[in-house]
């Protein structure tokens, strides 16, 4: 699993296992909405309601599904998976607590009987000074196209209907000269893409709630000849765990034909973040990179869009 938040003041949150999502039946199975968001530090925060509780949720493309802050949902029935674990860069903790939300809504979108993981998000609240009810992860959006406009602080969501799978395209995509397209994959409900740096292929998780780009320290030493280290930082994991890491810049990375110079990166060991079905990634593309562009995801057709 991948850490899904990071700052040099060591705020973080914990990824969880994938939930099952059930949608309202609609007369027309396609639906669109535009949702405003606030940026709190390098986090995308929007308003959502879980049953009768309304407040701040973080959009988190590094989380597999819905996560609720146990502080505000203690009265919900809990089932425990003792053979599961929550994992992050700093390590893992045994046991997963789950519950169900009868009605989850944000914008004009509604989800019913949504499974959620319960965890303590106090580290984020303390670091950012806001009340955080939960995280909105990838499984909620697997039937959608999502476009995030950082300049206007708007999220454009369209639920792709059965008859639209091969034809739907947002008006932002009409002029193909203004953006680049790259393929993505979903593995354990995380967004995976492949890019290139210094002649090496890198498999990366796309995580808009990771406040820094991250590279695995287990990459070959020769690769790090192209990284300039500027300081040490602390990363936070489950509970009070902290680990040391390095912060610096990668001289060059190519993404969908777009050359990125002096990309800020954090370097740490990602062995605790491998996928349940095997295989690891080389790093994370986080807010440092994603916020420089308007970005989009078509989760049905497994494509990512990066505007120039």
Rg calculated over all Cα atoms = 19 Å
C-alpha geometry: globular
Strand content: over 45%
Protein structure class: mainly beta
Sequence stretches where pLDDT stays below 50 over 5 or more residues: 1-28
The CATH homologous superfamily of the largest domain corresponds to Acid Proteases
The helical percent reads under 10%
The biggest beta sheet is recorded as:
8 strands, mixed
Side-by-side strand order of the widest sheet: 14-15-16-21-17-20-19-18
So how many helices? 2
Quantity of strands, as a count: 23
The domain tally reads 2
> Would you tell me the overall average pLDDT?
84
- What oligomerization state is this entry in? single chain
How far apart, in Å, are the first and last alpha carbons?
Answer: 30 Å
CATH second-level architecture of the largest domain: Beta Barrel
Provide the CATH topology of the largest domain: Cathepsin D, subunit A, domain 1
Order of helices and strands: EEEEEEEEEHEEEEEEEEEEEEHEE
- According to CATH, what is the class of the largest domain? Mainly Beta
